């Protein structure tokens, strides 16, 4: 107990320095992926045996998608070893920001599963290997990687809206803000609680401090989860709302994503069953989806937008027929 009290007194003595160091560390940790993108392969390098030439396809994807959404900031494309589109950048910093980057998966340059079979080395679990079309599960996995142009544009639009709406800064600052909130909850709240008492035991102050620490930590987790839900709903809605083709691509995108997870579930065996459901959703918490809404829910939202487009098209056709 004496050691615990001594540790508490030491932390209390240097509380401002510890808070500043922790906040800076968390801010740097959360901002680095938005400056140096993960899964970077080579800026303009991919297998040139695929039917889609990487430079041309990257240029077409970015120009058409940016034009459709009215996004004018420069974005540097690169080939990524990630199976999905990824991006990095702080758009709000204007000319002082790091250059925005978007990673186009190698599978986007493949026209069919046979090109994917020949050119892609897939990472399953901890090992990388070639997938074979003869195996039903591996064939299903390869099919999930080959997307139509509509689905590719939807995937790119989601990432561009992420950059355009500056979600990166929110993901960086929210955890940092909770460090300062925790500072007040741990060190100032006990003073407020025990201010009417002439003397409060160190044990009572320590308990109040620990309660503030745990409460702040839980609040931060819920805040990050809520931010993920809002962010994913926003980018999906905006990307699917660009046009009927984007909405169609969104439905296919989530179909293929769930198909990919289902294949993973089979290929990884018992480990895969702990990671993915039979529907292709990630297993993410018992009561709360911490990382965001499940794929089935995200696809349902995109389908509702597609339904609206179809109803509008039908309405226009009915008017013309009259």
Helix content: 55-70%
Strand count: 6
Large-scale geometry: elongated
Q: State the distance separating the first and last CA atoms.
A: 86 Å
What order do the SSEs take from the amino end to the carboxyl end, as H and E? HHEHEEEHEEHHHHHHH
The Rg value, from CA coordinates, equals: 24 Å
Q: Are there runs of 5+ residues with pLDDT below 50, and where?
A: 41-49
Mean pLDDT rating: 80
Question: What is shown here, in short?
Answer:
This protein has 322 residues and is α+β, with helices and mostly antiparallel strands.
Structure description:
The structure is a single chain. By secondary structure, this protein is α+β, with helices and mostly antiparallel strands. It is built from 11 helices and 6 strands. The strands form 2 sheets. The protein has a 4-stranded mixed beta sheet with strand order 1-2-4-3. Strands 5-6 form a two-stranded antiparallel sheet. Strand 5 and strand 6 form a beta hairpin. Helix 3 packs across helix 6 and helix 6 crosses helix 8. The protein is elongated and about 85 Å long. The termini are far apart. About 3% of the residues have low confidence.
Break the fold down into its secondary structure elements and pairings.
Elements: H1 2-13, H2 15-35, E1 40-42, H3 54-69, E2 75-80, E3 86-88, E4 100-105, H4 113-119, E5 121-124, E6 127-130, H5 136-145, H6 149-164, H7 167-193, H8 202-240, H9 244-267, H10 270-275, H11 295-321
Parallel strand pairs: 2-4
Antiparallel strand pairs: 1-2, 3-4, 5-6
Helix pairs in contact: 2-7, 3-6, 5-9, 6-8, 6-9, 7-8, 8-11, 9-11
